[in-house]
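hi got a favour to ask and not much time before my train. below you get a single protein, a line of residues and a line of whole numbers that encode the local backbone shape. could you go over both lines and see whether the tokens make sense for that sequence. a few lines back from you is plenty, here it is:
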Amino acid sequence: MVNKFRGDARLLEPGLDRLCDLTGRPVLGVLPWTAGLWPDAEDSLSLGTGPDDRLAPGPGVPDVLRVAVIRLPRISNFTDTDPLIAEPGVAVRFVTSPAEVADADLVILPGSRATVADLAWLRERGLADAVAHRAARGGPVLGICGGFQMLAREIRDDVESGAGLVPGLGLLPATAKFGPAKVLRLRQETRDGERVTGYEIHHGVVTTDGGEQFPGGCAAGAVWGTTWHGMFESDGFRRALLRQVAAAAGRSFEPGHVTFAQIRERKLDTLADLVAAHLDTAALLDLIDHGAPAGLPFIPPGSP
């Protein structure tokens, strides 16, 4: 199967025939490039993209809310911010410099595949100081999973990096300790009358010893930390948090009425329609039901 092909698929036919000759396997279809599809991504090269059908801010909204997501070298679970990208009147940027942190209304430290290494990178780039300075001024900061661990007082990591005890940013009354077992579970609670759901997937366990209640973690003033991914998909909670950010920034802002689950459903329907129109679905279903046919030639690694 060929994905994201631009142009006239008939021009590709000699190449498809050649693929079949080389591999002994048929090409089951060519999916065309479709702008604005915006599927959930695993590769960070897709960062910064978004749907083409986002609504503009409503009347009476003079500004947008500026959200800066720190683009960690080993960023993970970055789809956490997709609901913010889809929200009208919210501009989400993935940033790597202290100046981009300074002028944001909300700064997010996202998940990381290597918390201690990315924390060291924050310090090397001057981003750790920039986050601390904005927190001291009352600027909203949110840490998610690995980002929450970075905001803690200290991190004990004898598992992932083997660095032992590492000082965190000290912006939240919490400690993080890495263990060999991975925590994986769904979570749910209510905050200010809004239902919040999310999921945990991490080796670092955060223990809080103070602060205010926040779903999946704690808060200290305008600094929030959570172990939960996916919490911005809870529409009511997302809007309530954006109102807090707007109030702290002194902006006149009212979130729209985006239902993120509907956006996801529409893009999956679009993808399903593309598959139905351009792929040999009968052959795909046969592979699912019966596996690959017998007698296919073996293709050694690196063969021409």
In short: The chain is about 30% helix and 25% strand. The mean pLDDT is 90. Residues 86 and 263 are 8 Å apart (CA to CA).
